[in-house]
Amino acid sequence: MNKKERVCDVDNIVEWRHVITILLAVIVVSGRAQTSFDSGEGCLNVVDVSYAQGIGKYGDSGISANYMHEKFINENFSIGVGIGYSYHKNYKFSAIPVYFSTHYFFLDRKFSPFVNLRIGGFALFNAKNVGTYEKYSLSKEKQGISLFMSPGVGVKMHITPNIGIMASISDDIYLVNAFDTHRNDYKSKLIHGLGINVGLCFQIKGW
């Protein structure tokens, strides 16, 4: 091999290195692009269903469904409002919580863990275990402040750039005026339910 051929080979190697570098850069950019929600292309919408198991002596199991509509502050953080429905098995009442909701996604990627906090109030209705002076009964008196709170942790994974699935665990907390078996009277109690939540998250441009 003469000197000219060696120079040509070196030039070819350099050119191929540039090509490979550019291809790798394209692959990396493609891998990063549209792997998570676009904070400028509509709000975060979440619809989920949940089954909760009671925590503690006065906790209660039940089912619930929620819808959250949140505005992106940046690629990781969103905040907004939500509304839901829940039925509580032992206390035998239904509730419609209305709350502020926020999500923080740890990664701006297709797959990301997140934390979620919901806090607000709720309307209690269709109560069937009232004034019986037994465990899990509610007071006949006005319930007073109806606090709802639910911290949670979970993961989301995209199916498409605008649609994903979510799974999380949350502690759904309701403040109610319920019977206390130790005091033999009614008092304000926080009832807890450890919930397993599954649902869809999506963006619709302009919504």
Write up this protein.
There is one protein chain. The protein has 207 residues and is mostly beta strands. Helix content is 14%, strand content 55%. It has 1 helix and 8 strands, in the order αββββββββ. It has one helix at 3-32, and strands spanning 44-55, 62-72, 77-88, 93-105, 111-125, 147-160, 163-180, 185-202. It has an 8-stranded antiparallel β-barrel with strand order 1-2-3-4-5-6-7-8. A hairpin with a 5-residue loop joins β4 and β5 (111-125). The longest helix is centred in the first third of the chain and has 30 residues, at 3-32. The radius of gyration is 26 Å and the shape is elongated. The termini are far apart. Residues 4-10 and 22-34 have low confidence and may be disordered.
Topology of helices and strands:
Layout: H1 3-32, E1 44-55, E2 62-72, E3 77-88, E4 93-105, E5 111-125, E6 147-160, E7 163-180, E8 185-202
Largest sheet: 8 strands, antiparallel, barrel
Strand content: over 45%
3D shape: elongated
Poorly predicted runs of 5 or more residues: 4-10, 22-34
In short:
By secondary structure, this protein is mainly beta. The protein has one helix and eight strands, in the order αββββββββ.
